[in-house]
Amino acid sequence: MVPEKENDKDKLPTSERLKALLPDIWVLVRPRRGILAFSFFLMVINRGSSLVLPYSTKYLVDDVIGKRRADLLVPLVLAVLAATATQGVTSFALTQLLSKAAQRLIAQLRREVQAHVGRLPVAYYDANKTGTLVSRIMNDVEGLRNLIGTGLVEFVGGVMTAIIVLGILFYMNALLTALALSFLIVFGLALRKAFGIMRPIFRQRAKIMAEVTGRLTESLGGVRVIKGYHAEDREAQVFSGGVQRLLDNVMKTLTTTSVMSLSATVLLGVVGSVIMYVGTRQIYAGTIKLGDYVAFTALMAFLVAPMFQVVGIGTQISEALAGLERMREVMRERPEDEDPRRTDPLASIRGELTFENVSFSYEPGKPVLHEVSFESRPGTVTALIGPSGSGKSTIIGLISAFYVPTQGVIRVDGADLSTTRLDTYRTQLGVVLQDNFLFDGTIRENVAFSRPGATEQEILDACRIARVDEFAETFTDRYETIVGERGVKLSGGQKQRVSIARAILAEPRILILDEATSSLDSESEALIQEGLSYLMRGRTTFVIAHRLSTIRRADQILVVEAGRIVERGTHSSLYAAQGRYFDLYTKQHGLEANLFLAPGEGDEPPEPAETEEAKAGGNSLSEAVRLIRG
After folding, report:
1. CB-hemisphere CA count at 13 Å for 15?
2. Which residues pair with 366 in a beta bridge?
3. Lowest mean pLDDT among 45-59, 107-121, 356-370
4. For 329-458, where are the E strands, in sequence order?
5. Distance between CA 270 and CA 277 in Å, rounded?
6. Is residue 119 exposed (0-12), middle (13-18) or buried (19+ Cβ within 10 Å)?
7. 415-416 β-sheet, strand order
8. Cβ neighbours of 255 (radius 10 Å)
């Protein structure tokens, strides 16, 4: 794994970066300002109560003990007990309020980031690893609890208490206070420098964590490939390298934090020694009473404590701000359905799709499609063939509106697809992709994914057309059988049948089949092709396939090479022309196919009788089942 380059933002001063994040912090704080305001109120009571015990030592030493005022002992003890009880109750309330508010914030942010990421264009996923996105959703928001939780409020409360105590200490003894404050100011400046060093380290840690998580996700998902090539040790080394980078990063922060803790401890010793020396000399000189000195040293702890809190809480807040920066980067990516060009809704479409001189580049200056033009009418099948990397999948991606043409126009029923609202277009689109992705759920849930509101009968009809029933009904749990992650518990052919059933249930106007029957044996393919032939009627179908039965039935075949359409026509016309299609066809199907399957002959099932419903725009699920099963 190659480390990411340092972000230019890491070079900015901490104050500028914090200023840039203030609007985002306010967005998080604003809905919770009532809870935070009440928490700060409780914090004032809590910190005020905590001062009673150390300040009471003044009266205990000077009056109760020094002047033998026994009558003040009970009231003083009761006051300390009441203050301690108040401190305990307010601490409990603060923890309950802020900790729960912080956890609700984390849950909300995870939902928001996931929903936002889910709406980003496919190009964003092409540029980012799955594990990286998982880390953004799950890990980056975790540290933000310190912006709302007890950490920040306790830190602010500690600073507030220190300010109050500072005033009291100046009132009690200005010289001792000035001496202590001078050391604290020097330490504070050192802390500011340290946090400026730590922020980029925390940000880099999040990047490394995302990379390691991404590689681990890939390794676990590709475990069969790894084991098939006996590459366990190699993957372990790659992961170990990532973990080592993460360890090195953590070591840097631990070293910095340890130095800060050491400095704070030394500071406490220095301040204590100075106060002890100067205070004792003042007691000898009679300029300070013993009770005042004891109370002064007890209150000094509240002045020094925030410095220790800065070491712990400050690192947490730095980590939270780094996570907020990374989360903000994701949230500022524009979702594809917020494209200002996409404002035109589509009503129910017929499915006439046209490419007009379409060119496309994934990267500027590196076109993968060059002036592609063709027209597909409703009820027709368009087959795309060509060598790997020729641009077939890119054309399918453009039809699916995953990408927008660099040049040219794609039209659906005459409307420019680049200005069409995606929600009104994709609901009329059915897709069966080559990887046959299934979710870790039941067969029924995976089929119903395309149309959650479908009836039980419609789901069963789709399963029968795709021949899912032939294996699903042999399982103990039938359609409630769990398919496992990515459908691992099903065979490749079974997964394809479920994917096809999912597309069938959607009853789309435009159907895309990307190697939809590549994992099926000839017998299973023939059965499914029979069902697909009914589904295709009245619908615009695009097929990427190399199987003879699918290609031969296509109304038009587009031969794609190097991002251009080099030939187009029917199987018979292209075969007779003996051009590029002829070469690909004969190489793929062999001499035997040429000898025994002359143009116009084939083993495809007979065309079904065209019903009135088909003429109107396609067979329904129930009609398809009736025609297929008799």
Report:
1. 2
2. 363
3. 45-59
4. 353-363, 366-376, 381-385, 407-412, 415-416, 429-432
5. 11
6. middle
7. 366-376, 353-363, 407-412, 415-416
8. 10
**181 Cβ neighbours under 8 A, 6+ residues apart:** 166, 303
- Cβ atoms within 10 Å of 433's Cβ, excluding its own: 17
Tell me the per-residue pLDDT of 93-115, one tens digit each, with 9 for 90 and over. Answer: 877 777 777 778 888 888 888 88
Spans of all domains in the chain: 21-334, 353-629
Highest mean pLDDT among 17-31, 197-211, 325-339, 360-374: 360-374
User: Is 419 in contact with 343 (CB distance < 8 Å)?
Assistant: yes
Question: How far is it, in rounded angstroms, from Cα 354 to Cα 32?
Answer: 52
Alpha-carbon distance of 563 to 565, in angstroms, equals: 7
What DSSP letter does each residue of 52-80 carry, written as one string?
HHHHHHHHIIIIIITS--GGGHHHHHHHH
CATH number 3.60.15.10 given to 21-334? no
3-state secondary structure of 609: coil
| Three-state SS sequence of 364-376 | CCEEEEEEEEEEE
Asked if the domains at 21-334 and 353-629 fall in one CATH topology, the answer is no
CB 383 within 8 A of CB 558: yes
Q: Looking at residues 425-430, what average pLDDT do you find?
A: 82
Q: Which of 44-48, 357-361, 393-397 has the lowest mean pLDDT?
A: 44-48
User: To which CATH superfamily is domain 353-629 assigned?
Assistant: P-loop containing nucleotide triphosphate hydrolases (3.40.50.300)
The token pair that represents 409 in the structure block:
């126009």
Query: Alpha-carbon Rg of the chain, whole angstroms?
Result: 36
